[in-house]
Amino acid sequence: MLSDLEQQLADLKQAAVEAIAACEDLQKLEELRIAYLGKKGQLPKVLGGMGKLDPSDRPRIGAVANEVKSAISTALDDTKSALQHAQIQAKLEAETLDVTMPGVYRPQGRTHPLNSTFDRAIDIFVGLGYTVAAGPEMETDYYNFEALNTPPDHPARDMQDTFYLPDGNLLRTHTSSVQIRYMEKNDPPIRIVAPGRCYRRDTVDATHAAVFHQMELLAVDEGLTFTDLKGTVKEFLTQMFGEVDIRFRASYFPFTEPSAEVDVQWNGKWLEVLGCGMVDPNVLKAVGYDPEVYTGFAAGFGIERFAMVLHQIDDIRRFYSSDLRFLRQF
Ligand code: DAH
């Protein structure tokens, strides 16, 4: 016959082992441990009755109590390690990193050949002490023509027909307009380059586009001469192209006197890449400079043509067609 106490211990053991096996949470498992084995837990409570036992029964009951305690401890340990294992497993699954998976493809962009040509030209001029200036693509007749010594009836306007806006403004035909805008706001000495987009009503062919890019060069100071212009242009072209054949040709622009054009060898022929000259005294007067004190030289380069010579490109239209087979080569 089991004593009362033995029955209580057996019941406690069964209840405890079942509750522990059913536990699914480490926090609750710790609560169960305290509830059964803790100082004020159920096992110590049952054992509190040991004092009333007949001394001859004590060793037997004590042994049962130990067995119950170790059964509960084992159940706690087993469940604890099972729960911990499950927790790690869940974490591993949630945070899986498969290093053999293909990466996320991000297409790598490149600098468009026109922009890299701009960058290269700007680098050279910055090295020569120039700074970069900018002006609007939509211009007034004054900045694009008149202040550049090109009044409304001037025949040179024929070569620079452009897109006129209803309000009388126009899309600039060259970056030379930036010369005027910059000189109006600054005093000599001036050394600037002005990169930008230009527009002309031109018939498009292998070397002409209706929208194209130029870089303007302007230096104004006391005592500047044609020699300074020639030296600067030569230095620039040499840094740009290395040992390429170039030639200066006498030319005409309303805003320079004297004027010249410079050609570079391309596809076995001469390709005009820039116009230049000594700033016309009328242009200096238009911005309030005294032409008796100051002289200046200026030039305008076609960026497309520079890029065509640099990369041996056969047709200007390739720059604008967004053909990746072309663009990926740069
Ligand atoms: N603006 C001229 C053009 O687009 C190029 C040019 C020639 C610019 C002579 C200049 C210059 O600054 O001095 O055809």
From TrEMBL:
One of its GO terms (biological process) is phenylalanyl-tRNA aminoacylation. The gene is pheS. Binds 2 magnesium ions per tetramer. Its cofactor is Mg(2+). It catalyses: tRNA(Phe) + L-phenylalanine + ATP = L-phenylalanyl-tRNA(Phe) + AMP + diphosphate + H(+). InterPro entries: aa-tRNA-synth_II (IPR006195), aa-tRNA-synth_II/BPL/LPL (IPR045864), Phe-tRNA-synth_IIc_asu (IPR004529), Phe-tRNA_ligase_II_N (IPR004188), Phe_tRNA_ligase_alpha1_bac (IPR022911), Phenylalanyl-tRNA_Synthase (IPR002319), tRNA-bd_arm (IPR010978). It is an enzyme of class 6 (ligase). One of its GO terms (molecular function) is phenylalanine-tRNA ligase activity. It is found in: Cytoplasm. Mg(2+) binds at E257. This is Phenylalanine--tRNA ligase alpha subunit. PANTHER family: PHENYLALANINE--TRNA LIGASE, MITOCHONDRIAL (PTHR11538:SF41), PHENYLALANYL-TRNA SYNTHETASE (PTHR11538). Keywords: Aminoacyl-tRNA synthetase, ATP-binding, Coiled coil, Cytoplasm, Ligase, Magnesium, Metal-binding, Nucleotide-binding, Protein biosynthesis. Its main location: cytoplasm. It comes from Roseofilum reptotaenium AO1-A. Residues 123-329 form the Aminoacyl-transfer RNA synthetases class-II family profile domain.
